[in-house]
Design a protein that fits this description.
79% helix, mainly alpha, globular, 18 helices, 492 residues
Length: 492
């Protein structure tokens, strides 16, 4: 029985051959475990939200919801860096370069550890100021204290998140998208158990929800890392692999830092958007209204749309690994076909997201998942559904963005990805900062019109569109038309 289980596990985790076979079939097979992994990562968030929504006060729920863009900022930088690093691994794997794979593996260990320390050292001292940016201040003690303690614990555990993303990136670069899923399933179950234990039994509040998430991620990292070294002997580090040169550092930073910055730039825009939402719960005197309907409605709706976004995230990760390996092998026509076919797959994903999102918005059904009934009101449903309608109807723009961004990153064009991030930030900031007040005809507070809140929600699709415009050029030139004026451009 033990041997049979071992054989089944080894069969399931067998890497997908990304450089042969019908592109769309290969991409779907490769993407499915990644999509499930992203769904499970959202379950982390959902579990916290569901249990917090049932156990905590309305102010504490609002505080936890308000932290999303702040934690997103640092965790997305970590995710972007590791995703960029994995492109080097994928190129080496596609080029049948085991020494290069090991060097990349070692380099990622060094850089992931360093980045984790830096992010933790920066995030904790800046936490009070960042909360102030999104209009969460000590004057509203209930919301502020919940937000502070939740963020504090999450930031302490940045290394766990970084480690998981790093090891998953290496495995996916190898074509193995199943192993990360298996260990994430274990971790998710542990997270749920710890959530119930910390929040229900010990009444640890927002700190307990954050601690459960961090501890579960840490367990996933440890066991996934051990299994990786056992399962893939070619990743076992030799003494000579520990010595990395300036070229190795430069190559990984060239791919990782721009994508990390792009992801964090995205988070800055979301922070601005969150700050704009909070204003709808503030009286002209700066006091939060009872029940915080805008924050809770928007927070619940955001969690629901992020859950749907897992489909796009998985598809993006799949084309990143696919293009990385095929580009490393110089299969440029295969890169073109795979990217175009992924765009078509994305349209089917959009239709599913549209139907699912609109269905869950009926009567604000999704809010009952994330909050107890006493925290739900006509106002919270109105705010939340406005966001859902604007985002989900225009979700096809986000789909194009995810595919194009990952496809361009996969062929080692990180600066275009970074440029798209700046365009996305500029668009979201300009829309959220100016459009609501223009529509409202007055500064925003709790008396602002429904159209003014809809204007805030337009920050998302407006930002997506701006990024897509920037990515259109490299997508057409380097992927669809396969135009390289300079031979040095190939393989860099």
């Amino acid at each position: 029985m033990k041997n049979n289980t071992k054989n089944i596990f080894a069969k399931l985790s067998r890497p997908v051959e990304l450089t042969s076979g019908t592109p769309w079939r290969v991409i779907i097979r490769y993407a499915i475990p990644i999509v499930i992994s992203y769904f499970l990562q959202q379950v982390y968030v959902l579990t916290d939200a569901i249990i917090c929504g049932q156990v905590l006060t309305a102010e504490e729920v609002a505080g936890v919801n308000d932290t999303s863009p702040l934690t997103y900022f640092f965790l997305q930088f970590a995710l972007g860096c590791t995703a960029g690093f994995s492109v080097i691994t994928a190129k080496c794997a596609g080029n049948s370069d085991p020494k290069g794979v090991r060097r990349s593996f070692v380099m990622q260990i060094y850089l992931s550890a360093l980045i984790s320390v830096v992010l933790t050292a920066i995030s904790i001292p800046l936490l009070p100021r960042m909360l102030g940016i999104i209009n969460v201040t000590p004057e509203n003690a209930g919301v502020y204290n919940a937000a502070y303690v939740y963020c504090f614990v999450i930031f302490i555990g940045i290394a766990a998140q970084m480690g998981y993303n790093f090891i998953c990136g290496v495995l996916r670069a190898y074509g193995d998208s199943v192993t990360p899923l298996i260990f994430l399933m274990i971790s998710t179950a542990l997270n749920i158990g710890l959530d119930v234990w910390f929040l229900v039994s010990f009444r640890m509040g927002p700190a307990g929800a954050a601690a459960a998430t961090v501890l579960a991620q840490l367990v996933s990292v440890i066991f996934c890392f051990i299994y990786t070294l056992v399962r893939y002997p070619e990743l076992r580090i030799h003494k000579e692999d520990l010595k990395v040169g300036a070229a190795d550092i430069a190559a990984h930073l060239k791919q990782g830092i721009p994508l990390g910055l792009q992801f964090s730039i995205l988070a800055i825009g979301i922070i601005v958007m969150q700050g704009a939402v909070v204003k709808f719960d503030l009286t002209p005197e700066g006091v939060m209204v009872a029940g915080t309907p805008a924050q809770n409605g928007f927070g619940a709706a955001s969690k629901m749309t992020h859950f749907l976004m897992a489909l796009y995230s998985g598809l993006g990760s799949a084309i990143l690994g696919y293009n990385g390996q095929n580009y490393g092998k110089k299969e440029y026509e295969r890169v073109r076909r795979g990217t175009l076919q992924t765009f078509v797959i994305m349209l089917f994903v959009y239709l599913f997201c549209l139907v699912a999102g609109l269905s869950l918005s009926i009567g604000g059904a999704y809010q009952y998942i994330f909050m107890s009934a006493d925290k739900i009101s006509d106002a919270s449903v109105r705010f939340g559904n406005t966001f859902v309608y604007v985002d989900v109807i225009l979700y096809f723009i986000l789909g194009f963005l995810f595919v194009a961004r990952s496809a361009v990153q996969g062929i080692c064009r990180p600066m275009y990805v970074l440029g798209a991030g700046f365009a996305e930030l500029a668009a979201r900031v300009l829309i959220c900062a100016y459009l609501p007040a223009i529509v409202n005809g007055a500064p925003i507070d709790s008396s602002a019109s429904a159209l003014a809140f809809a204007a805030v929600c337009l920050g998302d699709p407006g930002a997506w569109l701006a990024a897509c415009i920037v990515l259109a050029y490299p997508t057409v030139r380097y992927i669809i038309r396969i135009k390289y004026n300079d031979p040095k451009e190939i393989g860099n």
